[in-house]
Amino acid sequence: MEVLKIATAGSVDDGKSTLIGRILYDTKSLTTDKLEAIEKTSKQRGYDYLDFSLATDGLVAEREQGITIDVAHIYFSTPKKSYIIADTPGHVEYTRNMVTGASTSQASIILIDARKGVIEQTNRHFFINNLLRIKDVVVAINKMDLVDYSEDVYNKIKADFEELMSKRDYQDQSISFIPVSALKGDNVVNASKNMPWYKGETLLDHLEKLDKADIFNVGTPRFPVQYVIRPKTEEYHDFRGYAGKVYGGNLSVGDEVVVLPSLTKSKIKEIYFYDQKYETASRRSSVTITLEDDVNVSRGDMIVKADDLPTIEKQFTANVCWMDSKQLTPGAKYIVQHGINKVLAKVDNIHHKIHPDYSGIEEEVSGLGMNDIAQVSFKLNKPIYYDKFKNHRTNGSFIIIDTQSNNTVGAGFIQ
Amino acid sequence: MKKDTSYINALENEAIYIIREVAAQFEKPVLLFSGGKDSITLVRLAQKAFYPAKIPFPLMHIDTGHNFPETIEFRDRLVEELGLELIVRNVQDSIDQGKVKEESGRYASRNMLQTTTLLDAIEEFKFDACIGGARRDEEKARAKERIFSVRDDFGQWDEKNQRPELFDMLNGEIDLGQNVRVFPISNWTELDVWSYIEKENIEIPSIYFAHKRKVFLRDGLIWSAEDGVVYRDEEEEVIEEMVRFRTVGDMSCTAAVLSEASTITKVVEEIRDSSISERGARIDDKRSEAAMEKRKQQGYF
Ligand SMILES: Nc1nc2c(ncn2[C@@H]2O[C@H](COP(=O)(O)OP(=O)(O)O)[C@@H](O)[C@H]2O)c(=O)[nH]1
Ligand SMILES: [Mg+2]
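Predict the joint structure of the above. Result:
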C-alpha cells in the first residue's frame, strides 16, 4: 500500500484540528510527552475536556491565538496503512491553502458543524475538492453531541449536500457522510453508542478500506526527464540514462516510445532502479531508463508511448487559482512550471472568474486577486506537452512563478 | 504484527525525485552530513538517484568536535568506499576565530554554535542548496516546513511567509545570496527511517546498537561518561549499562536509552513497540523512568 495523503477542509472552529487530534489519540499515536503536554495545557486553560487541537497547531502564534495559520502535516499509521493528514487553515488565505493541501492528497475530509449545516463555505470546500478531482471525499458532520445526536439533523445536512453535488463538474467522485463528534470521539475511530441509527463506517474504517483503485485515476504513462545520467566511467563508458518519475501508467522494456519535443522514435532498452534492472516501471516510481537508439534527450523532455501522444502546444487555457497579493493581469509575464519543465508564459486573456461557491461566473475581469479562481489562457515561448487535467492529474497541472519575487503565485489545471 | 513495508517504496520514490530535482535545479548543492542515521539514509537515497554515476555533489560535515569517535570513523569509511567528496568545517575554528562563544556549565553544548559555522561554510563555497535530513514528524513547528525551504542571506526561515508547494512541483527559483534547504525525507517518520535501514541493510555506526557503556544519570536521562565531553559533577556516579543512542548528534546533548537491541531488527522492533504501545509511550521514556527508579534505589538522593 502507498501512503495515503488526506486533506481536511472546514471553516474556522468546525473542528478540523480536534478531529485530527482525536484520530491520533484513538489510534494511540500520541506519545506520552505530547499527551501530557495536551493534558497540562488544557487544564491550565480551565477546559474540562482535552483540547486535541493542541496536537496539531504547531506555530507559536497558532497556539497563542488558538487558530491554524499554515498547513501542518500530521503523520500516523495503523497496522494497515501509513497516513499523512494536511490540516489546512480556515482563514483569509483559505482557498490558497486548501488548493495546496488538496493538490498532494488522494482523499479529503470536509467538516460541517452540525449546528450550522451546509453553509456558503461548504460550497467552496466542495468546489475545490471537485476542481482538484479528489476521488474520495468524506463529509464529516461534526459536533453531533451538540445536536443531541439527532438523525434528523444528519439527514437534513446530507440532503442539502446532495443538492450541491448535483451541480458538480466532476461526477466520478465518491462521497460518504459520517456523523461524528471529534471532541467526544463518536464514529471517528470507534463506533458511536450515541447514534445507533447510523449503520455506516467510522471515519477511520472508511479510510482503512480505501484501495489504490479508489484513490488513483488510471491514465497514460508520461515520463518527464529530470536528469540525464552520464557516469563517464570505464565500466559505463557509453551509458546514457534518463532519470525521472513515471506518471499515469506503467512503462516496460520494449515499449515503442517517442521523445518530445523532437518526436524521435525509439524503444525502451533497460529500466534501472538503483543497481537492479526491471522489466516494468510502475506509476510513481523514480527510475532510470535507457533507449535503444542514440537520441538526444535533455532535462525537460518527455518520453511517452508512441501511440499515445499528449498535446504539444505553445498555448493553453486553464482554471487558475491565484495565490498572491499582487494581481495577475492580462499581458503579464510569468514562469510556468509544468511538472519539471519551465517555460516563459504571457497571460493572453482572463476569460471569466469562477465563484467557487457555485454562484456562477463573472465576466469582464481586469485582474485576479488572492484566492480568485478564473479561466485564463496563456501563450508560451516554447511548447509544453500536456494532457487535460481531467484526463491526467499530473500532466494537466502547473504552477505559476513570479519572475521578480521567485515566489509560487498560482496553480493551474489545464482544460 | 509485522507491518507491510511496501509503503516505504512510495517514500523512497518521492525522496529520489526530490534529490534529482536538487541536482538539476541548482548550481552548487551540498548534502549536510552529520554521521547520523537520517543523513546516512540520505546518502543511500542519493546513490540510488544517480546510479550508475556517482553522487554529483559533495557531503559537508559541520563538526562540533563533540562527536562520538565511532561516528567519525564511520563517516570517513563511508566517504572512502563510495568515492565521495567530503568537506569538514569545525565549530572549534569558529570559536578560535571569536565568532562564537563556547558555553560553559552543566548543560554546555555546541549544538547552537553549529549554525554560525554552517552559514560561513555556505558562504565560503557559495552553496545554493543544502540537503538535510530533517523530518516533519520530529517537532510540531517542523510539520510546516516545506520540502524546498528558502533561506535569506542570514539563513533565516520566514515560517509565516512560505511558498506554497503544490503537486510534486518544486520551485527552486532563488535570488543571488539566497539558498534553499531541501528535506527529501520530510514525510518520513522515525520508524520509517529505521525500517528502511533494515530493509536496505544499510550500515550505521555501532553506537546505534546496544552496547556496554560507562554512563551517569541526570534528570532521569542517561549520559555518556566516556570521552569526557559531557560535563559531569563529581557526585554524579559513573555506572556501566547496556545502552544505545537514538540519535548521534553532539555528544553533549545526546542521551542514551537502556536497550538490549543489538541488531537492526531488534531496534526496529523496539521503536515500533514504543510508538504503538499503550497510550503511545515511548520506550525511552519508559526506560528512563526505569532508570530513574534505579537511581533512587541506588540511593542518589
Ligand atoms: N462539542 C463539541 N465541540 C467540538 C467538537 N469538535 C470541535 N469542537 C470544539 O470546537 C472548537 C474549535 O475546534 P478546532 O479543532 O480548533 O477547529 P478548527 O478551527 O476547525 O481547527 C474547539 O473549542 C473544540 O473543542 C465536537 O465534536 N463537539
Ligand atoms: Mg485548526
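Helices of chain B lie at 7-25, 37-50, 69-82, 91-96, 114-125, 190-200, 264-276, 283-297.
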